[in-house]
Design a protein that fits this description.
The chain has 154 residues and is an alpha+beta fold. It has two domains: 55 residues, no CATH class; 70 residues, SH3 type barrels. It has three helices and eight strands, in the order E-E-H-H-E-H-E-E-E-E-E. The longest helix has 23 residues. The radius of gyration is 17 Å and the shape is globular.
Length: 154
Amino acid sequence: MTVFYVATLARYVLVEAANADEARQRGAIALHDLYGDVRAKLGREVPIELRTIRLATSDEIDMWQWHNRMIAAEWQTLAASLRPGDRIRLMAMHADPDPIPVGETGTVVSCHRHITGGNEWFQIDVAWDNGRKLMLVCPPDEFEFIERANSRHS
């Protein structure tokens, strides 16, 4: 597989693909996920126009890998501090066939730390305000705190 740089005017992703056509497809999916915050703010779909599809440079690949390591470390720290009753808002749910909508809020039911093959990840069980109960896997799923359980007023 080869690493391709796939970009709109404002954002880009790197994807592994066998050729430019496959990179276009994978990049479109990854950019759709990346634009979840914009859809949540606007409350509607936004057009995503791919402007660039080319081979990624070694510097771009190195930067992307560093960036992903830093984000994973931040999410692990955030997830490790969760407690039952904390309120969160979903920022991104990756690779779920029936995802919770970006921007949905919920209450943390439990959080379990796992180590698989030397990689640390968290299973966060959430009771979503829309009535669903679906866990987050962190990383790659992303959320933000709304309110700590012990800071609520009775």
